[in-house]
Amino acid sequence: MSAETDAQQQERYDYLVVGAGFAGSVIAERLASQHNAKVLLIDRRPHVAGNAYDEPDEAGILYHKYGPHIFHTNAQSVVDYLSQFTEWRPYEHRVLAQVRGQLVPIPINRTTLNKLFGLDLKTDEEAADYLASRAEPVAEIKTSEDVVINAVGRELYELFFRGYTRKQWGLDPSELDKQVTSRIPTRTNTDDRYFGDTFQAMPKDGFTAMFEKMTNHPNITKRLGVDYRDVKDEVEYGHLVFTGPIDEYFDFRFGKLPYRSLKFDHQTLDQEQFQDVAVVNYPAEDVPYTRISEYKHLTGQQHPKTTITYEYPSAEGDPYYPIPRPENQELFKKYEALADATEGVTFVGRLATYRYYNMDQIVGQALATFRRMDERKSQGELQ
Ligand code: FAD
Ligand code: UDP
Fold first, then answer.
1. Do 26 and 363 touch, CB atoms closer than 8 A?
2. Could you read off the pLDDT of 166-175 as tens digits, one per residue?
3. Start and end of every UDP-galactopyranose mutase C-terminal domain (predicted)?
4. Contact call for residues 242 and 231 (beta carbons, < 8 A)
5. How many angstroms separate the alpha carbon of residue 83 from the centre of ligand 1?
6. pLDDT tens by residue, 41-92
7. Quick check: CB of 28 below 6 Å from ligand 2?
8. 162 burial class (0-12, 13-18, 19+ CB within 10 angstroms)?
9. How far is CA 59 from its chain centroid?
């Protein structure tokens, strides 16, 4: 009897946090360390770190199971927060695109123009004039096609963006919100870094090690390989934090929210290096994958072999990308209204708030969500 009572007592938590990616792990850590709350953190995958999960493969090479993750941010508060759990390896991401049989920098910069068109543009001004001569101004920029055509014109749009985007999203850029291709700048200088952020680095021992440190707290109990559906009636908890797909939480009441998926083909090759940079993009539509990533560039690992990943976009599979377009946003708004009216649950993260957010934005979102929970606690609304 007393063992049963103990077991029952162990099943009472202040919070149940569903999903151990950035959103769930940050919230769990904050609640455990700042509110001294007892937290049950679960994930249906057998590991923490969500899509940022990395692990050594059979050859001992650290690779990213769900595709290449590179940390970059302009938010010092996010860096400060994560730095409690990791040291950093300086790393600036560079990407080449295979276009017309050549490897050229993407984002498009002066080097790209010179290489691709056999030009000798020497200054930012010359490059700006050249792009202006090709650009086709769009009066009201709404779609992902408008963004690029407006900046660089149709030929460069077709070479670098149309095919890649059609493959990646299963939609033409004209059917996607402008935010998708707006992620990629156009440059007139020779800066060939993929990101312009003030802080660009990789967690020194990898993402998973950082997550372990974040979530190994005496107030956090982790259960991995467990779905919310299978525990929700078994454990008692005061409040739920849900970071999975919001439509799934509500049993697809208004219909399915579209998420884009990917298939990853990981390969370990018996050679020290495969390509010159961490990522090479393949925008041509007749190539079935979008990009190839080689991890040793990201991690700095020394190894006689190398591991690479081909990404094949797919409509089926784990939900990786919310698809930014007006009709999907409208459907999400219905779920959001339902979420707002649902007591006892907080929705946070890329899948639950249906936002195409990077890791740092999700950390920022989770920290802001915690601050609101903190206020509610001081007003006596939360335990
Ligand atoms: P997730 O990481 O998706 O975590 C949600 C977790 O919830 C998952 O582990 C899932 O298993 C779990 N879950 C869902 N439903 C349930 C349930 N019912 N029961 C139990 N568990 C559940 N961002 C960058 O900043 N830089 C990059 O270079 C970058 N590259 C990316 C590359 C790819 C291929 C992808 C897909 C994304 C990339 N991102 C990148 C984005 C980054 O992955 C996300 O911003 C971040 O992982 C979102 O964290 P999250 O916690 O919201 O979601
Ligand atoms: N994109 C493209 N060609 C490229 C790189 C990006 O068309 O060479 C478009 C494509 O639609 C892609 C989007 O820009 O989905 C955003 O690219 P990013 O590299 O940020 O995508 P993610 O890393 O999120 O997959």
1. yes
2. 999 999 999 9
3. 160-356
4. no
5. 20
6. 999 999 999 999 999 999 999 999 999 999 999 999 999 999 999 999 999 9
7. no
8. buried
9. 26
Dihedral of alpha carbons 12, 7, 42, 38, sign: positive
Q: Which ligand is nearest to the CA of 247?
A: 1
Nearest C-alpha to atom 31 of ligand 1 is from which residue?
69
Tell me if 7 sits within 8 A of 349, measured CB to CB. no
The tokens describing 190, both together, are 């020779």
Q: Is the CB of 95 under 6 A from ligand 1?
A: no
- Which residues have CB under 8 Å from 328's CB, separation 6+? 257, 258, 322, 354
**Residues 2-52+205-256+323-378, CATH architecture:** 3-Layer(aba) Sandwich (3.40)
CB of 42 within 6 A of ligand 1: the answer is yes
Measured from the Cα of 148, ligand 2's closest atom is 7
Ligand 2 pocket check for 194: Cβ under 6 Å: no
Q: Around 48, how many Cα atoms within 13 Å sit in the side-chain half-sphere? A: 25
